[in-house]
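User: Can you model how flavin-adenine dinucleotide sits in this protein?
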Amino acid sequence: MTRGIPLSPGASWYETTVPGIPSHPALDGSRKADVVIIGGGFTGLSAAAHLAAQGADVVLLEAGRIANGASGRNGGQLGTGQRAWPEENEPDLGYERTRALFELAEDAKAHLLGFAKTHDIDIDYVAGQISVVHKKRYLREYRDHVDIMASRYGYDHFRYLDARETEERLGSNRYFGGVHDSATGHINPLKLALGTARVAADAGARIHENTEVISLSSTGGTVVAETEQGAVTARHGFLAVNAYRGLLEPMTTAHIMPIGSFIGATVPLGDDSPVIPGGESVDDSRFVVRYFRKSKDGRLLFGGRETYSTNDPDGIREQIRRQIAEVYPYLHDVEISHAWGGYVGITIPRQPYVREVMPNVISAGGFSGHGVMLSNFTGRLYAETLSGDRSRLKLLEELKIPAFPGGDRFRDPLLFLALNWFALRDRF
Ligand SMILES: Cc1cc2nc3c(=O)[nH]c(=O)nc-3n(C[C@H](O)[C@H](O)[C@H](O)COP(=O)(O)OP(=O)(O)OC[C@H]3O[C@@H](n4cnc5c(N)ncnc54)[C@H](O)[C@@H]3O)c2cc1C
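Assistant: Here's the modeled complex, given as C-alpha cells:
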C-alpha cells in the first residue's frame, strides 16, 4: 500500500483458526452502484451486509485483504457501553444523551451476537469480562462505578471483586481489585469479519480486495471513488477506513489518529494452568491499557504495548513477553508462537467520529479501542440511515470531536509526546 495507509505487522494467531480464507477479485474496470463503501473492516462489511440485504447495489473496495486492518487482528473483547464510562461523559453530555449512548452500545452488543447467530457465524463467544485495577487509589472509582451503573443506568451485571477474588479469577496477584461483567465477553474477531463478508457477498454486495481508493469526490449528488483499476460512481459513499485512513480525506485524517497496538499469543498453557480459569477476558486500568484472555485452545492472548507513532514496531514478542511476566512471573520464559499488531483509531475524547465529510459521504471510525461491537453497529446504523431513519446514527454524529492539533506536519509528533506522558503516568 502506498498513500500513507499503515501496514499491519505480523500474521495473527486468528489466521490459523480460519483455514482457506476466501479471496475477492480486485476491481477491473469502472462500475456504477447505489453505494460505494471504502474499507473492508467491521464498519464497512457490516454496512455492506445490511445495505445489500435492503436491496441496495453495493460495491466495497478494500486496499489490502478483508479484515487485515484492526478488525481481524484485535483483542476480541466486546466490553459494555462506550469507551468512556457514563459518569465521565455525563458532565459534558448530560444524563439523557449519556443514557441514550449507553443504550446504543447495549443494542450494539445484542446486534453483534444476534447477527452472528442469525447468519450461523461461529465467533467462539465466551461470556465474562473483568476490568482490573493496577493502582490502589482507583479502587474507589471502580466500586462506585458498579453502584452508579446499577442505580442510574439499570445495568446490574457488574460485581465488584476484592483483591482475593481478583487473584483467584486471574491467577495473578498483581492487581488490587476489579469489576466482573457477566453480560459481555469475547470473540474471535477474524471469524466475525469473514463471516460478515460472506453474508454481504451472498446478499449481492460486490467486494473487491487489493483495490485502494486513491481519490474520493462528491459533486452534484454523485460520488466518485477512483482507483488505479477504475472508478466507482455512486449516489452515496461510506468511508470506513478508521485508523488506516492515510491521506484520502482530510477531515477523517485530522480527527482519527492511528496508534499501534500489539498482541502476542503464547503456546497452549495446558489444562492445569492457573491463568484465568473462568475464561473471562481482562482489561486493566492503565491509560495504555493491557488486555488479555485465553483462546479456545488454551493460549494466553496478551495485548499491551501501544506505540504512539505509526512506525513499524520491532520486537513485539520481547515486549509482550516482558509484560506477561509482570502479570504472570511464572510465565517469564513462555514461548510466544504468534506476535502481531494493528492500528487503533482514537479521537481526542475517545468517542467515535461519524460525520458527513462531503455531500452524501459519511465517514465513520475512531472507536478508540472499543470498536468491536460499536463499529459493526455503526455499519448497521449507516444502512438504517440510507433507508430513511437517521435518528440513531445522529446520536454519534452529534458528538463533539475536536481535530488533533498540529496539522499534517506536527500531528504525529505531538501525539507521540502527549501519549508517552500518559504511559509514564501509568507507572507512578
Ligand atoms: C491490536 C488491536 C486490538 C484491539 N482490541 C480491541 C478489543 O479488544 N475490543 C474492541 O472493542 N476493540 C479493539 N480494537 C479496535 C477495533 O478492532 C476497531 O475499533 C475496529 O476493528 C474498527 O473497524 P473498522 O472497520 O472501522 O476499521 P478497520 O478494521 O481498521 O478497517 C479499515 C479498512 O480500511 C481499509 N482502507 C484504508 N484506506 C483505504 C483506501 N484508501 N482504499 C481502500 N481501503 C482502505 C484498510 O485496509 C482496512 O482494512 C483493537 C484494535 C487493534 C488494532
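A couple of observations from the model: The chain has a mean pLDDT of 93. The CA atoms of residues 161 and 178 lie 5 Å apart.
User: Helpful, thanks.
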